[in-house]
Every structure is written in C-alpha cells, then in structure tokens.
Design goal:
The protein is α/β, with parallel strands linked by helices. The chain has 2 domains: 144 residues, Rossmann fold (3-Layer(aba) Sandwich), CATH 3.40.50; 164 residues, Rossmann fold, CATH 3.40.50. It contains 12 helices and 9 strands. The protein has a 5-stranded mixed β-sheet with strand order 2-1-3-4-9, with helices on both faces. A 4-stranded parallel β-sheet has the order 6-5-7-8, sandwiched between helices.
Length: 369
C-alpha cells in the first residue's frame, strides 16, 4: 500500500480578468521571445469573454467534486491545486502543501494523453516547484497514469456522441423541439478533435508506436473504441457512421510541420464530398470546456460548418460529469492500493498506460493493513 499525504490537482491555468491576459500569455510562451503585439492576436479570444478563461472556475468545481467523492469513499486526502501558467502556481501549491505537513503528493493532471506538454512539461514543473522551495530532498510528487482510455473519461464522451447522433437523426426530444430536419445516419460524420502539436513532438511521445507516436496512437485507439461503443449501444446502423481524427489550435512557426488536418479544413472537405450533411464534433482531447474549446470549436468550427451548409453539434467535454469524477478517484485508489496492471480498467488495447517515476524523494511504502 502506497502512502500519500495529499492530492495535487495540476492544470494549465488561465486569466481571470482583462489585466491578466497578456501576463498569462507571456507565461504560456516564455522563452520564445514573442512580442506583446503578437500575443495580442491571441488575446482577443480571451478579451471576447471579458478576459476570463473558464478553466480556473472549472478546476474549482472539479476540486470540490473530487473532495466530495473522496469523502464519500472515506479517503482522507486533502487536495491542493496548482497551475502551470497562472495563479495558483505550482510553486505556491507545493509550499502550501509542505507547510500543512503534506510531503508525499499524488498529482492528478488535467491531461489524459502522452505528450511533452501533458507529461514531460508537468514533470519539469514539479521539479522546478520543489527546487524553488528548497524541497527536492524533502517532498515527492507521483502522478496518476495517463487516463485517455479509462472508463471514467470515456463514458461522458460516449454519452455525448450518442445524444448528438440522436438529435441530428431525429431520435431525441431535443431534435423534435428544435424542429430541424432529421438527417440519415449515413449522412453523419464524427470528427474526433484534439490539440495539434508539432509532428516532431508527436513522434517523440513514443516512436515505437509509429507515425505520430503515442500521442496519435492513443487518440486513434480511443476514437475507434468510442465509435464501437456508440455503435453497439445505439443500433447496428450506427456502425456505418464514418469518423476522422482531426486537430485544432495549431500555433507557432508556419514552416514547422504540425499534426493535420485542421478541423476547419476537414469540415470544408466533407461539405465538398457531397455525402455528409451533419458533423458531430467530439473534443476528446480535452477534459473541460476551456478557451480553446469555446473559441476554436464553438466559434470557429461551428461557423465553418454553417458556412459550408452542414449541421453541426459539439459534444460536451467530461468536466465534472459524475463518471469522470468517480474515475479520477478510482485512479487515486489505484495508486493507493498498488493495483496490478492487469486489474486496471481500460477500453483500448493500448491500456492501461504505465505509471511514472515520482519526482523528488523516493516514495515510501507501508504494509497493507
């Protein structure tokens, strides 16, 4: 049985007012020498929403939901919350934990997949937070495994896909109330969308998985699994619904190859082929409806679909869905009880993803009582 003193809810962070936007974007792009005038090109996404990213409030809600579920299960572990790019920063969260006597932390990272930003960069963040507080030899930070194919993460997405297909094809109360013409199932296309990253970074995430590395392999495996579950639950005809893996939010030097196709290009191509009348946008690369979901999908992608004469619905992200919250606590218990790999739940052939080595001192173990 592995002992921990507390949970570290670990996230990206976001601005909470107009004055925060440029300082936040400087944090996100630190070390790249990007001038403020270029940052302002991205800032308008946040300024459109009053300078407030929804991600911090979503993390407050997630923290409260996790605390309630831990209490329900009788797990006495407090939660400290830290961000990479905005308050509360990891450095502050780690110090807060130490001052409370919590020196063995288990991190819940709000990133489900394997990539530098989702794994390696968080590890560097943890190492830096310990070092800046002089706690490298005193504290340790473990993290739960990547949970891209854990049932708790997958269930809300499956439910969202089923609901969207039913609404588009006239099989739900929502479609009846909306009064929109139903489309045939064979005229629907599922667009599984995630954040684009440089192609080289994708390859580095796990070269043994072939082109695109572990990052692409995980997304492809999950898209296939979701489409199969949706097909079994909603009827045999749904098995014929085609799907594509697409990307969003590319940035940086346009000369650098990034993962493609962009979702807007994919939507335009589907409109041209003449076989698609509606698309279901599945933002399965994200755990909550943060700014890139709200702007890049709810604004740009839905606009692209409308301009191309396609109906479009966007599936909700897991957020604080009860299954997701319960699944995250399952992952905590998995580490507390050193659950063997062959007993860890997963819905793809790639899972369960292995654990990572802790940051800081070696973790301590005690005999199970």
């Amino acid at each position: 049985m592995t002992t921990y003193d507390a949970i570290l809810l670990s996230s990206f962070g976001g601005p909470e007012g107009q004055d925060d936007v440029i300082p936040f974007l400087r944090n996100v792009t630190r070390g790249r020498g990007i001038p403020d005038e270029r940052l302002e090109e991205v800032a308008h996404h946040y300024r459109h929403h009053g300078g407030v990213s929804p991600i911090n409030e979503q993390n407050r809600q997630l923290k409260a939901a996790l605390e309630a579920e831990l209490a329900r299960r009788g797990i006495d572990l407090p939660i400290h919350w830290g961000n990479r790019n905005w308050q509360p920063y990891f450095t502050d969260a780690v110090l807060e934990a130490h001052e409370a006597g919590h020196d063995r932390l288990l991190a819940l990272v709000t990133s489900a997949y394997t990539s530098y930003s989702g794994v390696g960069q968080y590890r560097e963040d943890f190492e830096r937070a310990l070092a800046e507080n002089g706690l490298t030899g005193t504290m340790s930070i473990d993290r739960v495994r990547e949970y891209f194919d854990h049932p708790g993460f997958v269930t809300p997405l499956v439910e969202g896909v089923e609901a969207a297909v039913a609404e588009l094809t006239g099989g739900s109360a929502a479609s009846t109330e909306a009064g929109a013409d139903a489309v045939a199932r064979e005229d629907v296309h599922l667009l599984f969308v995630t954040h684009s990253i440089p192609s080289a970074a994708a390859e580095a995430s796990g070269p043994q998985f072939g082109k695109g590395g572990a990052y692409v392999a995980q997304h492809c495996a999950l898209a296939h699994a979701i489409s199969e579950v949706e097909a079994r639950d909603a009827g045999e005809a749904v098995a014929d619904i085609p799907w594509s893996l697409v990307y969003q939010s590319r940035s940086g030097d346009p000369r650098t190859p990034w993962l493609e196709p962009d979702i807007n290009d994919a939507i335009a191509d589907l409109a041209v082929d003449g076989h698609t009348k509606a698309v279901v946008i599945v933002p399965f690369g994200f755990v909550s409806d943060h700014m890139e979901v709200m702007w890049d999908l709810d604004n740009e992608a839905l606009t692209t679909a409308a301009e191309n004469g396609l109906r479009a619905l966007r599936v909700p992200t897991p957020g604080t869905h009860p299954a997701f919250v319960s699944g995250l606590v399952d992952l905590i218990e998995e580490r507390l009880n050193d659950v063997p790999s062959d007993q860890r739940p997963h819905v793809t052939e790639l899972g369960p993803w292995p654990d990572h080595d802790p940051v800081g001192t070696r973790r301590e173990k005690v005999a199970a009582r």
